[in-house]
Amino acid sequence: MADALKIGIAGLGTVGASLVRIVQERQEMLATTCGRAIEIVAVAARDRNRDRGVDLSKAAWYDNAVALASEADIDVFVELMGGAGGPAHASVKSALNRGIHVVTANKALLSAHGIELAGIAEERGALLNYEAAVAGGIPVIKALRESMTGNSISRVYGIMNGTCNYILTQMEKEGLSFEDCLKEAQRLGYAEADPAFDIEGNDTAHKLSILTSLAFGTAIAADDIYLEGITNISIEDIHAAADLGYRIKLLGVAQRTESGIEQRVHPTMVPYESVIAQVDGVTNAVAIESDILGELLMVGPGAGGNATASAVLGDIADIAKSRPGAQHVPAFGRPAAALLPYKRARMRSHEGGYFIRLKVLDRTGVFASIAAHMAENDISLESIMQHSKHYMDAAEPKTIILVTHATFEASVREAISSIKGEGYLVGEPQVIRIERPKP
Amino acid sequence: MADALKIGIAGLGTVGASLVRIVQERQEMLATTCGRAIEIVAVAARDRNRDRGVDLSKAAWYDNAVALASEADIDVFVELMGGAGGPAHASVKSALNRGIHVVTANKALLSAHGIELAGIAEERGALLNYEAAVAGGIPVIKALRESMTGNSISRVYGIMNGTCNYILTQMEKEGLSFEDCLKEAQRLGYAEADPAFDIEGNDTAHKLSILTSLAFGTAIAADDIYLEGITNISIEDIHAAADLGYRIKLLGVAQRTESGIEQRVHPTMVPYESVIAQVDGVTNAVAIESDILGELLMVGPGAGGNATASAVLGDIADIAKSRPGAQHVPAFGRPAAALLPYKRARMRSHEGGYFIRLKVLDRTGVFASIAAHMAENDISLESIMQHSKHYMDAAEPKTIILVTHATFEASVREAISSIKGEGYLVGEPQVIRIERPKP
């Protein structure tokens, strides 16, 4: 049997502690599968005295992750601290510069510095593995980077934030408001005390930026993602979606179009009978559409100490099974220098179906006016209907719901702007994009 | 850049021709991704003169696959002939004996000789990759063999035969009989002229035997699979399932139990709201339940020239990215010699819910008699109902449908045997097992 694979772990939070426990408890199983033992020889974390429920007596302790990465006698540096810059960035860079393989679960780091790090890894013959960074336990990085080699990808999309999917699922199931479901998610530990990063879509955007690079062979362009969170989704939207045969999910979507690559994160209506519509609660799902393989959908846990640790361990095992320096696996599918520039497709040119909910004053001719503004902008309607519990009360504003056939975002914006000018709108219109799986 | 990877392909049917076309058309893309070119240097097929729509002029032609495998100057032997024995077995063995990597899509071969071949591969330092052998384009082999390293698997199950899933989906959607849907499937090329191998469950069993070995680290035991096809499923069953909130799918299930490992292929009721219930038509799906990662479900194309060629190409690319002799990847997760003996859990000890449909003569006391026989066998009922279009016509036999809570197969068999003895049954009872995803 080959020499043991020596790993150093920086960050001993939930994922780090799970990883240590699993590696220690399953030594024999791992050695049999990998052809060599996996040994945790060094760890770095802030508080040495905290009880993490694992035995760290045999590992060298570092108070400083960068020191571990740059000095320890290790084969693999496992970064589980999080954060786009600071010690995570410095330590990963330092390890790669030494030619040491890196495994990380850090989406923010990769989204910000992924290509730089991939370049160093290639130059030094080190591997940079990050399965846990996107959709937790779902092996989507492996699918894109390995299984789908030779495929041309047309679209990648998915539910990549468990907090948002939990809230949307609960709103539908319990008929509760967004605020109530958010509170419940916080009580259960599914949402942070400051939930903005999740519910505004930033977390999904980080993950999407990584998938986009892998899928299309382009540089990471996280800042070019169109972003819309779920805070604006009301229980009326959920009910209207259900009536129309849809469910609302926060999707991250990256899509090849004629004008470039579209990257967008927004609440999305998906057909009720599609498989992804049935993905409930904190579960994640990622779909990949390609020209040879066809459509692949993967559903699984997107977060949690164990699921994330499992993905990290899979990455470590891949290194254990290889021999140092023996592989050519560019971190983002193509060598960093061969990645194409990212060409952004503007959101205005997005083409798809739209759900539009308008509150209007109950005046004669409103229906006709709305229909006319849609027609002026070449928007073909699938349906238009009035939807109100208080149909008989003329003083109440009425709700009008439109569903369009495929049309352009610019046309929808233009039509809504014209409708706003008519003076019969009450409050802001709600616009939700519709996404359909490949037929 | 490293030397080109030289491949030889035996079998130029739909998958082989797709593979040649893709490799030739995407040379540059593949070279960038793999760090070396992939070249088809030799091919073997029966008819040299058949037009396959691809240019084979640069490849050495062999009439005999074994000759190609044992003589050609190749790095990878790609076996796409099919068949458990004969030239497929002989040629793969011959290639591995020379230390040449093998990629195969041949489930029958692996089901019959997988462990023998894995042993030779390990001894000679060759890789044996077979992603395409199970569920076509779905990367389930990679997930089990690589991503889930260190996990203890409790259950693997899936829809692994597109023909059966197409027929069952059409029966439900169109309200047609099994026979009519089978004919339609044959007309569309989704079913063979002799469909027995698919509809009797043998194809699913081959695939399941491979997944079982990978999931549980045991020897392949294809002959120990409990087998029940879909020929017995009637439109009444489909309707009754829908009424009860289920869909019927042909599942292959491998499950760890206290008495051993259960392997079974049978029509199964899955809850309508589960993700797998929404997998329609020829699409496949595989779910893996494990203790660290949790539940992973993958949905994708299970067959077809392109999807299968994509999986084969992924396997070839993995070899291209590695360097010969540089990896330790036992074909079935553990080294062949370290695979555990397979201990069969008998079907009689299977525990789960059951759907039972009985046709009975309309006599007083029949309901009570059935309920009594269930109780005698400790079977707890979730529901019992009479189901008949001709409720008022006393001369017509009545249909009684029972759904049980979790119980043992032996108890169900015993109860049905007792009921048969009562003399009020008309025809054979229908028994369909219920399978639930992990909650």
TrEMBL record, chains A, B:
Positions annotated to bind NADP(+): A10, G11, L12, G13, T14, V15, G16, A17
Pathway: Amino-acid biosynthesis; L-threonine biosynthesis; L-threonine from L-aspartate: step 3/5; Amino-acid biosynthesis; L-methionine biosynthesis via de novo pathway; L-homoserine from L-aspartate: step 3/3
Keyword set, alphabetical order: Amino-acid biosynthesis, Methionine biosynthesis, NADP, Oxidoreductase, Threonine biosynthesis
ACT domain segment(s): 355-439
Organism domain of life: Bacteria
Enzyme Commission number(s): 1.1.1.3
MF terms (GO), sorted A to Z: homoserine dehydrogenase activity; NADP binding
UniProt keyword annotation of Iron-sulfur present: no
InterPro entries in UniProt: ACT-like_dom_sf, ACT_dom, Asp/hSer_DH_NAD-bd, HDH, HDH_cat, HDH_CS, NAD(P)-bd_dom_sf
Coiled coil: none
Active site: K207 (proton donor)
Sites where the protein binds L-homoserine: E192
GO process terms (BP): methionine biosynthetic process; threonine biosynthetic process
Binding residues annotated for NADPH, in chain numbering: K107
Enzyme class, first EC level, given as a word: oxidoreductase
Family as reported in the entry's similarity comment: Belongs to the homoserine dehydrogenase family.
Protein name: Homoserine dehydrogenase
Organism field: Sinorhizobium sojae CCBAU 05684
